[in-house]
Specification:
With about 450 residues, the protein is of the alpha/beta class. The chain has a four-stranded parallel sheet with strand order 4-3-9-10. The chain has a four-stranded antiparallel sheet with strand order 5-6-7-8. The chain has a three-stranded mixed sheet with strand order 12-11-13. The chain is elongated. The protein starts with a strand and ends with a strand. About 45% of the residues are buried.
Length: about 450
């Protein structure tokens, strides 16, 4: 089976083949005015898995993930703190890169290009001029707006009538607009606001045009894959399609549109506006980052994911078991090999839960294997399957050495409980392996009338 991806534009699972020898992919990145929340990390993690797969399959990839560093929220933060916008954007762009790297969004999983809006003002202005020249945009009172009525296919991505979209969106109704649904390509900057010279006066670009210009500058007029969160489908991605295709003579902007589902927290969509967020910057300091990555990959990317401490704790316990298996195989030399079953799962629209199930199955077989050749094969497959998702790539000793005191206590108790369950299931090999693992960490088990207790040292 070849790679099949669910294309939001067609609402179908479609076989993917790049337009040229090397595929292209654009993923909407952060607006850098604060730390990102864990919901913002789902796209970079899952589409990073796709990036690694495409690089492996096609020998390369041109992958851009932008930085939005021109935005009214950035202006507000800079004004509040009395600093230039670069002081805000440089700080939080660096924090974003650090947090994504902690989650394993690096190496084969990272973008090749990270364009910033402030470095593409010439391309943005040139695209706006082309839209005006072709009758798809108009200047009014220092603004430039895209005329939605000029693009017959508007709404094809979100499958909604423009009037319905207008009713369901927060639209700025202004006297200079010809139609209430027209959206801003350029807006004036008053005193105290960042601005750049343009044919329409000193101002700054709208959000949507930034991505269109950066995608075209680095990946060409037609790209293979455009990805992002489902919350960006309208209006951001709908507007990108309209302005890009109109600026480029009707050329298809993106052949495949991929959208990841939202993270829910406490029963509601995680968002800064609701205040129900958990920042990546805090989470990677409170939990093993690999467990956060595992949790983000535990559901199929298009489905919503309920985020909770329980989800992370389960990921930690699972990784304890997997790294425990690799520790038991420390005497086995093996080269990582990605099993065909893992490739088949990834080919099925990035079915990461199926890959995780394969990892668990391989680890289970490895724990039971006695024959040296079989142990070597299974260790190689376990390492290869983990590598496909960016998991199980550190030494077991490094994994088990991590953690805060409270988090480590919970992890140790989970291992003790797992050992008890293994003994009850007569899986004595696993029970002995857990005891040996705990002993290596200096944990002593004691049988008491109240059950098994543990302590450090002694």
């Amino acid at each position: 089976m070849s790679l099949h991806l669910y294309n939001t534009l067609s609402r179908r699972l479609e076989p993917f083949a790049p337009r040229d020898a090397i595929p292209t992919m654009y993923v909407c990145g952060p607006t850098v005015y604060n730390y990102v929340h864990i919901g913002n990390a789902r796209g970079p993690v899952v589409f990073g898995v796709l990036a690694a797969l495409l690089r492996r399959r096609h020998g390369g990839l041109r992958y851009a993930r932008n930085i939005t560093d021109i935005d009214d929220k950035i202006n507000a933060a800079a004004t509040e703190q009395g600093v230039p916008i670069s002081a805000i954007t440089d700080r939080f762009a660096a924090a974003y890169r650090e947090d994504m790297a902690a989650l394993g969004v690096d190496g084969a999983f990272a973008p090749d290009i990270e364009p910033a809006a402030t470095a593409h003002l010439d391309e943005i202005i040139e695209m706006i001029e082309r839209l005006i020249a072709t009758g798809h945009a108009y200047a009014a009172e220092g603004h430039v707006l895209f005329s939605v009525d000029s693009f017959d296919a508007y709404g094809a991505l979100s499958r909604r009538d423009p009037d319905e979209m207008l009713a369901g969106a927060r639209v700025d109704v202004a006297p200079y607009k010809r139609d209430a649904g027209d959206f801003v390509l350029w807006k004036p900057s008053g005193p105290g606001l960042p601005g750049w010279d343009s044919p329409w006066g000193r101002g700054r670009p709208g959000w949507h045009i930034e991505c269109s210009a950066m995608a075209a500058a680095h990946l060409g007029r037609t790209i293979d894959i455009h990805a992002g969160g489902i919350d960006l489908q309208f209006p951001h991605h709908e507007n990108e399609i309209a302005q890009s295709q109109c600026a480029h003579g009707g050329a298809v902007f993106a052949r495949f549109w991929l959208h990841n589902g939202m993270l829910n927290f406490g029963g509601a969509k995680m968002s800064k506006s609701l205040g129900n967020i958990e920042r990546v910057h805090d989470l990677v300091r409170a939990w093993p980052p690999e467990a956060l990555r595992y949790a983000l990959l535990s559901a199929q990317y298009r489905q919503p994911l309920e985020w909770s401490d329980a989800l992370i704790e389960q990921a930690v316990r699972t990784l304890d078991r997997l790294y425990g298996t690799l520790r038991d195989l420390a005497d086995v030399d093996a080269d990582a090999t990605i099993p065909g079953s893992v490739d088949a799962a990834l080919d099925d629209d990035l079915n990461t839960p199926a890959v995780l199930a394969e990892i668990a199955r391989i680890a289970g077989e490895a724990r039971k294997a006695d024959e040296p050749g079989e142990r070597r094969r299974l260790k190689g497959e376990l390492l290869g399957a983990g590598a496909a998702l960016g998991l199980l790539q550190q030494a077991p000793s490094a994994w088990f050495a991590r953690g805060t005191a409270d988090g480590d206590d919970a992890r140790i108790q989970a291992l003790v409980d797992e050992r008890i369950a293994a003994k009850q299931a007569r899986d004595f090999a696993r029970a002995d392996a857990i005891r040996a693992q705990l002993a290596d960490e200096g944990i002593v088990l004691e049988d008491t009338p109240q059950g098994v207790r543990w302590k450090r040292g002694g």
